[in-house]
Amino acid sequence: MKATYRAVLAGTGGIGDTHARAVQATRGRVQLVAAMDVDAARAAAFTAKWGIARTFTDYTEMLAGTRPDLVIIASPPALHLGMSVAAMEAGAWVWCEKPLCGSLADLDVLAAAEARTGRFTDCVFQMRFASSTAHLRALMAAGHLGRPLVAVANTLWFRDAAYYAVPWRSTWANAFGGPTMGLGIHTMDHLLHLLGDWSEVRAVAATLDRAVEVEDVSAAIITFASGAVATVTNSALSPRQETYLRIDFQHATAELTHLYSYTGENWRFTPAPSAPPSLAEQWRAAPPDVGSTHEAQLAALVASMDAGTRPAVSGEESRRTLDLLSSIYKSAYTGEIVRARSIGPGDRFHRAVNGGGRSGSASAA
């Protein structure tokens, strides 16, 4: 008999419906027993819509009143760390929206709480969990594609003044950054999931057009431990929106074009002229298609809870991504080439991704 996990949701804004659908997709393995929001009317409307038994406006009261197995955090970013630690201390596992926290120092606090409680916090990075990505990784691992050589990872989105009118979205203290931390983080995590450890980065960031404290564009050149070189652009300024990931291997090019989610149909695979004819057949021999959904990631998290093992996007996997983002900001605001794992205690970019600067310009350094 498989366990049933009692879950609660913190934050009933726009992404709340996505999490409720993900819970429903578990077919009873996860049951959403309560939801909370500081906006009482919004919380009540949400619980009525989804048939959730209990409604709260206080997070601590919800934890104490429900004693959940899993806490799903969909609150503004500045609340993520405190809510995650409190949930683990209450005996629950955590599934938290990105960005998981605001600095590598915060991630150290989270890791200490995991060690202290024996619980884990998994970050929402659903782009990793599509079956097409798993298929590409399997071809890579088998050596069919050869070495990765060149990559492109572009998050070209459009966020207008109305989007940033929500107070927490425009400041370092509440959002932890602009499109680097809040938008492109998904594509960069996806890139790292495919290419593995990175070695150094050089970057620029600027606030070009939005009346915000954070950056509205960044660009980086990343060198990976394998020797592969990637270019990355993160933008909130692009009217024709697109998410684009491309990797050129020795024997083929794999391209993914989408916006907020993808399936196998969003990929384009081009074998090199010298590649064996069987390579195209191997690409087409993909498993049944599962998209890059919250449902797919929650299914993996439930499997980890069943086994009592660390979930996929926690610990060192979370740290590698946040280390890259912190390093992009450090390079952009200091002009330095920043090496992986070089930002440690005592470095101002360890305490805050922007080094504690007060604006999104290079003068913040």
Topology:
Blueprint: E1 5-10, H1 16-25, E2 30-36, H2 40-50, E3 54-56, H3 59-66, E4 70-73, H4 80-89, E5 93-96, H5 104-117, E6 121-123, H6 131-141, E7 148-158, H7 161-164, H8 172-175, H9 179-182, H10 185-195, E8 198-206, E9 217-224, E10 229-235, E11 237-249, E12 252-258, E13 267-271, H11 278-284, H12 294-307, H13 316-334, E14 338-339, H14 348-351
Parallel strand pairs: 1-2, 1-4, 2-3, 4-5, 5-6, 7-10
Antiparallel strand pairs: 7-11, 8-9, 8-14, 9-10, 11-12, 12-13
Helix pairs in contact: 1-12, 4-5
Structure commentary:
Residues 358-365 have low confidence and may be disordered. The strands form 2 sheets. This protein has an 8-stranded mixed sheet, covered by helices on one side. Strands 3-2-1-4-5-6 form a 6-stranded parallel sheet, sandwiched between helices. It has helices at residues 16-25, 40-50, 59-66, 80-89, 104-117, 131-141, 161-164, 172-175, 179-182, 185-195, 278-284, 294-307, 316-334, 348-351, and strands at 5-10, 30-36, 54-56, 70-73, 93-96, 121-123, 148-158, 198-206, 217-224, 229-235, 237-249, 252-258, 267-271, 338-339. The N and C termini lie far apart (56 Å). It is globular, with a radius of gyration of 20 Å. It has 365 residues and is of the alpha/beta class. Helix content is 36%, strand content 24%. The longest helix is centred in the last third of the chain and has 19 residues, at 316-334.
